[in-house]
Structure formats: C-alpha cells, structure tokens
Amino acid sequence: MLDSPLLKRCQGYINGQWLDADGGKTLTVYNPVDGDALAQVPGMGPEETTRAVEAARNALKSPASLAKRREWLQNIVKALEANREELGRILCMEHGKPWKEASGEVDYAAGFFRYCADNLEALEPRQLDEKPRNCSWTVHYRPAGVVALVTPWNFPIGMIAKKLSAAIAADCPSVIKPSSKTPLTMVALFTLLDEALDMPPGKVNLVTGSAGPIGDTLCDHPDVRVLSFTGSTEVGRELIERSAPQVKKLTLELGGNAPYIVFQDADLDAAADNLIGNKFRGGGQTCVCANRVMVHESVAADFAERLKARASKLKVGDGLESDTDIGPLIDRNGYEKVRRHLSDAIEKGAKLVMGDVPPSLENDWGGFFPPTIVLGVTPQMACWKEETFGPLVPIATFGDDDQAIDMANQTEFGLASYIFTADDQRAQKVIAALEFAHVGYNTGSGPTPEAPFGGMKQSGYGREGGIEGLFEFVEPQTVPRGD
Ligand code: NAP
Predict the structure, then answer these.
(1) What is the dihedral of CA 20, 79, 121, 66, to 10 degrees?
(2) How far is CA 106 from CA 70, 164, 195, 243, 373, in A?
(3) Residue 200 · residue 62 · CB < 8 Å
(4) What is the pLDDT of residue 95?
(5) How do residues 4-24 score in pLDDT, each as one tens digit?
(6) Nearest CA to 164 among 152, 176, 181?
C-alpha cells in the first residue's frame, strides 16, 4: 500500500466534502512495477456525478474577482512547489515513470497555474476603440458555466493542470474525472486544494470511478457547458456524438502520430540527443513523442548507430531507483501493443538495430520493455499507422523533401512533429507544409505553459496553454451601450 500524508483520504470530493461512492464500491490502483495494490478510490457513477454537477452549478452563484482567482492560482503554485517530491513519489508509483521525471511533471503543472496567474488581465473587460452605431462597446469574458475535465493516465498532474488553471482563471466551477489507472495524484492534488484554498464549496469537484457511466452523465447533463477531454481519438469521437444533442462546447486533446524528420544536412548528434529525450520520456507513452522517425536515406544507417550508442546507456527499472531512465509500461495491454508493433515490423521486413522481441507478459501489470530500434519501416506496418506508446523507435527513410512531407502528413493525426535541418529555407518550406499544430525545429521539445498547444485533423480541437488556452472556458459577451 502507498502511505502518504497527501493520501489521508482516498475519496472523491463533492461540494467541499470528501466522500465515498454511494454503495461503498471501490477501484484498486496498482503499481505497474509489480502489481502491488497501492490504494483504493471510490467507484462512483451517475448519481455522484450528478451531485457534483449540481454543486458546481450552485458555485456559479459565488463569483470570484480576478484578484481572488489570481490568489488561488498563486497558492496552488506554492502548494505544488512545497510538495513536488511527495507528489512526484505518488505519481511515480501509480504511473511507473522515474521519480525525477515525475517531480519534473509537478514543476510543469505548476507552470500552468503560474502562467494563468500572471496573465489573468487578458480576461478583463475590453472596451472597443471604435464607436459603431453611435454606441460604446464593451466585451466581457464571462465564465462559460460548469466545466467537466477528463484526463488520461500518461500525465497524471500535467494534463489536469492545463485544464484546471484555465477553469479557475475563467471562474468556471469544475467536475474532474481522472483516469482510473492513475487517480491518486489527483486525490493528492485535491488534498492540497482543500487545505490551501478558501474556495466556496462546489468550485472544484472530483469523481473517481467507471469511465462510461460518469462520461455519459457529463455529456447528458444540460448544466455541463464545456467538456474538456484529453485522451484517445476513439473516446473523443464518442464524446462528440454523445454531447451533440446538448450542443456542448468541447475541447479535445486527442491522439498523435508524430513524425521526427532528420534531413541529410542536420546535426545528427543533436538530432539523436533530442530524440532520446523526446522518445523515452514516460517510457515512450506520450502523445507528443516521435512515433515515426524519418531519416534521409543517405544518413539513416549512421543516425541509427548514433541513436543506438545513446539508447544503450538507458537504464530500465523501478522509477523509485534514482538511476532509472525508463519505468514499466502502464499495463499488460500497453506492453502487448508495443510487442505487436515490433513483431509486425520485423515480419514485414524491418531490421533490428537494437533489442529483440521480448516474451509475452504473464501478469496483468506493467512489464519492462527495453529500448528497441528498427530500421526499414514502411507505411504498411502497424507502428507507422498507430500510436505505439512505448520505447520502440521505428526508422523509415526518404529520398527528397517532398517525399518527407508526404510521408509525414500520411496520417489522420496532426498533433506534434519535429524537423532537424541546418537549412532555414528548407525548414520554413517544410514547416508550412506540415499538417501538425506543433513543429519542433531542431528541438525535440514538446508543449510549455506559455504557448498554445493542441491538435489539427483528428488530434482534436481547442488549445491549452498560452493566451489562447486562457480563453477556452470563457464566453465573450458583447454590450453596445447607446448614450
Ligand atoms: P482514454 O482511454 O481515451 O482515456 C482518457 C480518459 O477518458 C480517462 O480518464 C478514461 O477513464 C476516460 N474515458 C474512457 N472512456 C470514456 C468514456 N466513454 N466517456 C468519458 N470518459 C472516458 O486514453 P488514455 O489511454 O487514458 O490516454 C492515452 C491517449 O491520450 C493517447 O491516445 C494519447 O495520445 C492521448 N493524449 C493526448 C494528449 C494531447 O495533448 N493531445 C495528451 C496526453 C494523452 P478510465 O481511465 O477510467 O477508463
């Protein structure tokens, strides 16, 4: 079991009260390292979710000034900074990512609350300079209403920080549903919110439990005005359909299939160093990590060897050990998917540069998948078409820039992409042609709190982070005043 001062109450949080599920049902959270049961959280459903939405709707009657919201956001930053190590430990144990990386995710989360606190004035009412129709015009940014925030397991605190910071900034009460695989970091965050903030009851609510019934209730309830979801495109599509009759506003951060393009004139060492950081973070279980590495045919073998030299130094193991670089995959399904992608690639002609097909898992939890590199990947292979979500690096080759662009765009996803080249003219042409909302240029860097991030095509819509993210939960209200 996981003992922590931040998990004194492993319960849901509705209307300012810690609560169990009505019937006492629970869900067990497991450590992906060894399948140890870490804790139990309530297995809530439609009734508790409905009560949380009602509490949130009531909280709309207690609006907070910009100054108060800024104070809340700043206090969350302080609470996260003071508890980064303990939050990181909880996150590491339920997700499996190395503790040092998990504490870094807490810093990343704090950055979103800090950014919103520092930029709240963007939501002040705006007076138009012009006076059309002999009126003075004011645009107010009103809270959109109750917002539902649904998050995945791969960044247990990073993903909620993006949404919750913007919801607090907009003064929208929220109902939060974390992934059932990693709800403990969220419970720990609520412990901090409960202790550190003087929020009216119902401003923030937490429901843990089965995704389908909770999700259906959030989609069907007329008082939920915005549904902000991060997760798979498959579930995102279901939420669009389910919430259509209510004409709800959705913001969707969905799956990716990131190309990582290395041109023949690139600094190959820098491209390899960046790929190590980009690909193996979270064990390769991120929406922004390179899923298809594309290297010019003249340098592909050389690049693969440089990458192998670096990847062989990575240590796979329990994230609580200080020298671990890659933890276990989240569960058996995650492990078997990477294994299937690797076997499929080899059967269809790809060559192993590093690693081999590991045995199938006998247990249901995690499983350690070593860093693996294959060369000679083609668009017919599963690892080209689907998100692998694991430490497998599939390398394909291209002959010229146009072919690289065509190959990169050959996916229904449009989230992150990366290019490495020493030629700025080439870079600008390629960046403009890429159908991806994030293009790293000579960097494997992903999102940051200061810049908007989101997807094109079937990677979703809406933005998180930056000024754009601040406006996701407000409704502009325009008031012409005739004098
Ligand atoms: P998922 O299976 O789609 O689940 C995401 C969240 O939705 C979880 O809280 C899950 O709850 C819940 N959920 C599942 N079915 C639902 C339903 N019918 N109604 C409402 N909620 C439902 O995704 P995941 O496996 O957790 O996360 C991995 C995916 O997220 C990948 O595709 C990755 O690319 C994507 N992702 C995207 C971004 C981005 O910024 N675009 C960032 C991170 C991850 P349970 O856990 O209880 O099932």
Answers:
(1) 50
(2) 19, 14, 18, 32, 30
(3) yes
(4) 98
(5) 999 999 999 999 999 999 999
(6) 176
- The domains found in the chain, sorted by start residue, are 5-254+459-482 (3.40.605.10), 258-448 (3.40.309.10)
Pocket test for ligand 1, best of 105, 216, 232 (most atoms within 8 A of CB): 232
Q: What would the two tokens of residue 51 be?
A: 């009560």
Residue among 378, 399, 393, 372 at smallest CA distance from 444 = 393
Q: How do 392-398 and 372-375 pair as beta strands?
A: parallel
Closest CA to 199 of 230, 223, 167, 244: 167
pLDDT tens digits along 90-115? 999 999 999 999 999 999 999 999 99
Atom of ligand 1 minimally distant from the CA of 415 = 41
Told to judge if 47 belongs to the known catalytic residues of this protein, a careful annotator would answer: no
Length of the chain as a residue count: 483
User: In sequence order, which residues have a C-beta less than 8 Å from that of residue 248 and are 6 or more positions away?
Assistant: 219, 224, 225, 226, 227
In angstroms, the CA 141 to CA 129 distance is: 17
- What does the alpha-carbon distance between residue 244 and residue 105 come to, in Å, rounded to a whole number? 34
Give this prediction's pTM: 0.98
CA distance 99 to 85: 8
> Collapsing DSSP states into helix, strand and coil, what is residue 69?
helix
**137-162 pLDDT, tens digit each:** 999 999 999 999 999 999 999 999 99
Residue with the two structure tokens 């276990």: 328
C-beta neighbour count of 310 within 10 angstroms? 16
Which residue among the candidates 253, 387, 464, 472 is catalytic per the annotation?
253
CB-defined site of ligand 1, < 6 Å: 150-155, 159, 177-181, 211-212, 215, 230-232, 235, 238, 253-256, 287, 387, 415, 455, 459-460
pLDDT of residue 15: 98
68 alpha carbon to ligand 1 midpoint, in Å? 32
